[in-house]
């Protein structure tokens, strides 16, 4: 999840003269009043702080009706500062046909409107409950209580309200996305180990050679597929005629809706369509 930033800053905390007997408690009280609020000086929402050092035992007295004391200190801050195109995660609290309502970190509200939900998701009623289900992956479901990963479109600093999007393929249910990313990693590692064991290398471009008097042509093409199952179906269709034979897939760095290099081999000059 994006949006977090750690910062070491020098601060001046103003405390009342009546609180000077226990300065540490007064500092804690003042800093705690800034928690979960947007601060322009920090350019973010303060989530946590740690007082590293009180830089001087002397404090500057402010003139006025209430002579506050300015205590200089060094502090580590944890800030939440979401920006456009960052990925955030939150819990779905309400799901309707027009929008998805999400709570981020328990204090910031986010909304994802219908126009920002990719067409892959369709609203369905399951056991009397509204759910968003993917048309491509039946187990990819978003419902009330789900943790979703979404893209930030804008952030209203005054009311801590986020406008989000489920447009990119890497957004959706965190549970489903994480599970499938692990499966992709296992598939990639298995393929790499197979190649190391068999002494294989990736084939790129056009390679031709002579084997037993026949001309062998190897061709690598780019297939545009939404997911791995579609890739396998694509390959089956291309090889159903028995002319071209698959001899290598490049699974590395596989992601949805991308170009996948696939190598084919034939003993003729047939065109691959």
From TrEMBL:
Q: What does this protein do?
A: DNA-dependent RNA polymerase which catalyzes the transcription of DNA into RNA using the four ribonucleoside triphosphates as substrates.
Tell me the protein's name: DNA-directed RNA polymerase subunit
Classification via Gene3D superfamilies: RNA polymerase Rpb7-like, N-terminal domain
UniProt keyword annotation of Transit peptide present: no
Q: Which GO terms describe its biological process?
A: DNA-templated transcription initiation; transcription elongation by RNA polymerase I
Stored InterPro entries: RNA_pol_Rpb7-like_N_sf, Rpb7-like
Keywords noted in UniProt: DNA-directed RNA polymerase, Nucleus, Transcription
An annotated GO cellular component of this protein is: RNA polymerase I complex
Entry keyword annotation includes Protein transport: no
Where does the record say this protein resides? Nucleus
